[in-house]
């Protein structure tokens, strides 16, 4: 059974379409990330799932039941807010138990769950404090704990780490993932941080302008982006306009691009005769190869510690190269090659 | 039911309430003020059978309305100016000087609003009697009003003083401006909306004030509210009361709307004062 | 701070705060002193408890206390009762909400005496209410509604005049509660009423207290509404005080004045405590 199914959901605010025809499923115990730039409709989609917004059209199912018209207080979801949204007048313990009291659980059961969550999140010493007496990281954990005590079918996270500093973010990230696994919860996690998405998710949905551009495991998304938007949004990519000149045997094509003729190898054929293609800067191979050998003029170099960023000009097209070997020296140009399987087909050029 | 529909229903309910709340009462008052004495407005008529401005003219010519209006409209601007003048130094201290006990001062300033109006009025009269000043009605009311409305003036002006920008003052000093010049370029422009608002609010409150004017002024010094009060009590003639009510309320409502706008432009935080 | 800056501060505060303290201070002082027989304007001044003890035996005085407290508490309660749902409704702007709050706030601009007059017009013997009730066939003949003995007229007027004020205070504090916090409550299973009881009410305690106290103090000391629309067989404390003053019985007026102020303070404290207790769901801390 699916924990959550979203079927053809759309959301219009007047003339503006914030979410358009989105469909996806979340399996039990699955951790899904909604990733996309600010304003692309992530929060709107999350609010449709939690019930704060009624979809203009489409269906939301939770645990196999249609909940499209069920108000948030009767949906089996728990949300972890970006602002934490802790109740300022209630102690940490009362914040954690708020939902349980609404459910009218027995006192013993309630105390049991409170202890359980407080121990897991290391909040036992803070139970009597008010939220404004806690540090940012602790508040974050209370917000998480408050959602977890509900043992919901699905936990929803709206950029829960954006108010924490970078160090803390890494550790809380792992903590969230660990607890989600322990409880075997389905989770939908919203972020605009691609690193976070790649590191945490079972599956990533990339959103752009209210639509899902691509869905897949982190490896799939990074390795075979479908569009230049996805290629550019996740990691760095050199994107080129290409024309398919001819087929070179099984799964190999000859392309004409700004940087010269290239051979590309792909399981899936190109979607059109003229299309976008890309290659990742770190895939450049040093020295000449059997195919796709290129000479590049180096215009600028930026030392990054474990690698060097090279900004190069190939036949008057600016490209980026990542060089693992820091000993590029001060040469003005370099010879390199790109393996055919590292050239990825993207969307057609209209 | 969606929130949108609910709002629509509530909106209509409120529209109805608004009619009951404001439109009907005022329409009736206006109609009463227009009743011509030749034919009384009996309950079998929806509208007065004969309407004219007779009452307005009559009251103007044959009652103390003229005197009451003169008194009120002399008193109010004087009170406004005196109150503003008295409020300025304290407002400056509250707005621009940091001193221990500032919060206490801010609370103490509110005292005139806490003591019931009629207590103030009656025992102020007692003091006047003790001092032998009980014949000095205009001055006494002016004095009492000025102090009574100080809390509003101090509150508005101290916020205004807070909004004067220190870098403007410093820039003026840096460029060699004298004290007077400094006030002209840095203080006055920032204080202007506050000053206008203070004058206006005190003016309105003074026109409306009843307890002091009634107790200190009785029996022979009338203002518009005291005149209305006598016309609502012992010599109640509905059309006359209607005329005086409208004379009291209409100019003030217009001034209030003006004030609201002024306060909003001067300081958004203040516009929640009155109106 | 140096003594010079203290001196400067003193001089600055003198015309504003200084005058207020002297004026209100002497008014309150005279009231208290006169209630004990001092500062007599006619006969001899000497300290005595007689005015108090005789006043306590007067039926009019004791009934005025009960009546004024009733008007004060009932008005405060009604004003806040009507203002609360409106404040929750107007928490966030929506199309038309500005107009609505303008209409609701309009009574603030209408003078109390005028309000009383408008009300009296509507409920008069041949007024609108009587006409409508007869027109609908509910009443056979006109009823006398003015100066009703249960002071319903006074309460209607007090509520009409004070509700906008309570609304102003409550909207301010209710709209300061963030949407996320209310959404979080809903998400954790709290329905509309639970959200009000567990989140909105406890977070707007101080505004509610302020509204209750201010409306109470004003209504407790009511004079004009009582004189024009109140029951003829009952007197409010202010009315009683003005009555004594009118006959030159300053000491008796002073006793009533001190009673009024004392009840104002005691009643306010009581209201503040009780409202806090209730809104916090039965806890004081
Ligand atoms: N209640 C609303 N009314 C109108 N437009 C809205 C509303 N809520 C969100 N939007 C718009 O929808 C778009 C998506 O918003 P949101 O889902 O918050 O984006 P994000 O991906 O940053 O979370 C934005 O352009 C936003 O301005
Ligand atoms: Mg968002």
Offer a few descriptive terms:
A: 350 residues, alpha+beta, Rossmann fold, OB fold (Dihydrolipoamide Acetyltransferase, E2P), 6-stranded mixed β-sheet, 5-stranded antiparallel β-sheet, 37% strand, C: mainly alpha, MetI-like fold, 13 helices, globular, binds adenosine-5'-diphosphate, binds magnesium ion
Explain what the structure shows:
The complex is a heterotrimer of chains A (350), B (275) and C (285). Chain A is α+β, with helices and mostly antiparallel strands and 350 residues long. Chain A has eight helices and 20 strands. In chain A, a hairpin with a 2-residue loop joins strand 1 (2-13) and strand 2. With 275 residues, chain B is mostly helical. Chain B is built from 13 helices and no strands. In chain B, helix 3 (65-96) runs parallel beside helix 7. Chain B is globular. Chain C has one domain (56-279): MetI-like (MetI-like fold, Orthogonal Bundle). In chain C, 73% of the residues lie in helices and 0% in strands. Chain C has 13 helices and no strands. Chain C has helices at residues 3-35, 50-57, 59-89, 97-105, 112-123, 128-135, 152-174, 179-187, 192-203, 205-220, 224-229, 237-246, 250-279. Chain C is globular and about 70 Å long. The chains are: A alpha+beta (350), B mainly alpha (275), C mainly alpha (285). The structure holds adenosine-5'-diphosphate (ADP) and magnesium ion. Adenosine-5'-diphosphate is lined by residues 13, 16, 18, 36, 38-44 of chain A.
Q: Which CATH architecture of chain B?
A: Orthogonal Bundle
Q: Nearest-angstrom radius of gyration of chain B? A: 23 Å
Hey, which two chains have the biggest interface? B-C, 74 and 69 residues
**Amino- and carboxy-terminal Cα gap of chain C:** 37 Å
Binned, the helix content of chain B reads over 70%
Q: In percent terms, what proportion of residues of chain C is strand?
A: under 5%
Number of strands of chain C: 0
Number of domains of chain C: 1
Shape of chain B: globular
**Low-confidence runs of chain C:** none
* Total number of beta strands of chain B: 0
Taken together, the total number of domains of chain B comes to 1
Query: Could you state the CATH homologous superfamily of chain B?
Result: MetI-like
CATH fold name of chain B: MetI-like fold
**Number of helical segments with 4 or more residues of chain C:** 13
Oligomer: heterotrimer
- How many angstroms does the end-to-end distance of chain B come to? 34 Å
Dominant shape of chain C: globular
Major sheet summary line of chain C: none
